[in-house]
Amino acid sequence: MMQTQEAVRLDAGSNAGTARERPPMPSFLSSSLRVFDLSLGRMLWSRGTAFMALVIGLPVVIAVICRVVTGFAGTGRIDGVPITGGALFGAMMWLLYLRFIVPILAVYYGTSLMADEVEDKTITYLFTRPIARGAVMAGKYLAYLACTILVVLASVVIVFFLVVPINGGSIAGSFLDLVKDLILLAIGLIAYGALFAWVGAQFKRPLLTGLVFVFGWEQVALAFPGYLKRFTIVYYLQSLVPHAMPSDDLLGMLQSMMRETVPLSTVIIVLALITFVFLGWAIRVVGRREYVLDQ
To answer: Among 23, 140, 151, 207, fewest CB within 10 Å belongs to which?
Structure first.
């Protein structure tokens, strides 16, 4: 009897010692930052780097061409109206960055946050670490934001200094609009990224689903009158654009059709809800989903 009690005490002491030796589970924030640190370098030097360089390099090339052409040809005109650098920069913000670059980068990187890990069969190594599974999604989302915001905003600044001085445009006078543009594009990458992070975690063909949403649903919804456009992200982003296009040309006509004045408080609330709801859903999906890797 005494030997049995002694054995129980020894077992209990051994289990207690094992429990003391086992490191505690890191917090969700700490785990997310670990995944962020691991993912950022991989994302910057992944197979999508060339694609991202091509996308963000397009407006820079256009800006260089415009600068060279106006330098040789003198003042550029459309229907007899001189093209100012500020107007050209605003058009590039509308047509290139807001309507193409921001959504396409968000689709490409957001939908691949988990899909690439499954395709490369590396998701098992992430899930075997002593961290919450949802923290994997949160950390990779933060890496996406750091990567895309850094390169997109750098591209915008380069284009700004190339284009705005054309035909005597004032850099100092347009600097406040530049700051607003940078904030606007960052907000767009945050909101679109959260949406497509959920798409990538939820659907089997996330890239196709994302492209249909951006270049299908959003374009159709904006073209039709009524409330459909309120179920798009670009509808709220467009109301924050500080630039106005000339009202007597085709671009101005298109802008007047697509743009509506939305209160700033409404824009902030809606975009914040989109970000937190869809990112929360993405984290929840990753935390509960069983990933089966193809052999």
So the answer is: 23
